[in-house]
Amino acid sequence: MRKFFRPLVYFTGKKFNATLFVLAFVFTVMIIFSGAFAPKSEKINIGDISPKRYVATRSVENTVETQKLIKAAKDSVGNLYKHDPNVAVNAEKQIDDMFSAIDDGIAQMKENAQKEAAWKNAINKVGAEDGDYQSAEPQYDYDLNITLGVPAYFTSSQYQEYDNLSDEDKALFIEDIKYGVNYAFELGITEDTRQSTIEKVENIVNETQWNDTLKAMAYTISDAVIVPNLILDEDAIEAAKEQKASEVEPVMVLKDQKIVDSGEVITAEAYAILTSLNLINTGSSGNIVHMLGSVIVAALCFAAAGIYLYTLQKRAMGQNNSVVLLFFIYVLSIVILFVTEKFENYALVPLSVFAMLTSILIKPKIAVALNAFVCIIGTFVFNGDVYCLIYFLITGSFASVLVQYTQKRTMVLLVSIAIGAINMATYFGIEIFSSGYSPKVLTESLYACATGIVSLVMVIGSLPLWEGVFGMNTKFTLAELANPNNELMRRLIIETPGTYHHSLVVANLAETAAYEIYANETLAKVGALFHDIGKLKNPQYFSENQFAINIHDKLDPYISAEIIINHVKDGLELAEHAALPKVVKDIIQQHHGTTLVKYFYVKCVKEKESAGEIVHERDFRYPGPIPQSKEAAVVMLADTVEAAVRSYISSGNDPSGIEELVNKLFKDKLDDGQLNDCRLDLKEIEIIKKSFMKMFNGMYHHRIAYPKDEEIKAAREKEAVLEKEEELKGEKSDDSTN
Length: 738
Description:
Structural class: mainly alpha
Distance between the termini: 102 Å
Number of domains: 4
Number of helices: 29
């Protein structure tokens, strides 16, 4: 099957990837348009008769009722006033100006009357005989026409009564008027309270000592100068209204609550709720707006996902056919969403399938990150709300991590239960938060649990199809390759037992170290098991398979080096024939990198030195490439140190020197540039070294020397002598007693 699909899955490139990206976006937009915003709802207007019973598909605000409460709250705010101190000051000044004008008017009137009387007396005096004439007295007319500056009118009697007052009484009269006016201003005067306040001032005036004429004059003056000193504070009123409005709790229509029943009139309130829930068709313009918004959000999601993959996961997406695989996983997920959209309950939507497939087939980090983008798209396709989005995000994130533990059969059941429980808890928590508890919530939570379990079964069951069609290699496939019943493993055991034992030790070292640095420990183990399968072609040429006789002693160093180096090429041929995964073949090809076959290089230099021949180092180096992944680098290091330590121990050296040897071997690889492309940092290299040492300390620890046969025989003879002496002592003791 892999060979059949190989032209498809390995057709990659930037243009091809970009094309897939655009196709995925177009497909998404088409699904959104045909799903969430399809014109499948009734077209209803206010005042129409409802054709069916409508219930809320989610909790939503009743905006009409909320606005009514807000309006009532604002209307409850009364008038708020601010005090104007200048009004009282102006009133007092007006009173002073008024009486000043009255005093000036009366003085002018008297002056004119006196002049007129003097003129008359002068005329009479001229016409009279012997000075006998009647003297004319000034005639004071208090019907004055004085400009007072305020809308007030006084009678002549009032002017006259005021004029009859002494200067001291005039001042006292004016002070009494000011006292009444200031009292009014201290009470605070509005347009509505002005008249009642003036009446209070009149009561104060009535209590004074003045006669009725002067009191009437005081009434007139007070009425003229008393104006409102409390004016409407528009800003304060508006702020108070906004405060009252903010205290109003929104009126909510809860999920599954009836909006309008069949046969009932569609009110403005019901129409607003139906519109906000997209339960009725409000016309093409509304759909166009929704569609435009969905396209914008979807485009931003795709842009963010593309930037993330290109910048942070460029290497991972460049491997094999990851882009093609991701495209088909995404398309499958969108189709699942489209099919399940009719359920109208997000608990039944197995969107976590995307996160789990991406985690197993590509990379867990990519699965967790892209799950967020797909959940947003999924919410649009499903026409869900924010609670739907939260559910997809939480369950997908957990699923992408937990599915990694299903590589062991014993863990599949436990993981499925865990995923189901998480789905159930997430749905239950969201629903009781948004709508409160009800028996229905518990039932739907069980549906969510079942959906999570079914999603995992779908993913595990479909893995062989994904692996076969796209040539992907999951931990499940790799774990099967590690089975000793594998054909190549059986050949290693039978034909090259030394190489098989070496591969087992290297596999244990590599698996442990890869686990410590969070690399793919399964790939490292399988790669280590198969890294030397090329030795099956000429097993007798490798030291671990030789017994007493070393064939290389009789061979030219060039030939020996060629045979040793060719085990990589031979291994690739066997791997190709056995259809081993590419990642395993990469480790076979890269586990020696471009290292130098030092033993035969030095041997050749010594042999050719006497003849003056030049020995080229390149003839004794592996063709490479150097390790391109962490797993390949770990296998290289494990292979190097295992062979060297085994040789070191077999030569009778003290195990205490193993650590120094390992440090030297690691330094050689670093200095030779063999670890330049594998993305291992110095901290990880140190962790690998410590992991190896932990394994070696367990394998080559100091043991107690067993005693020789002569020592055992001497111990037994000494024991017999001591026992004989004890018997003699016992006999002597008995004799002395007798």
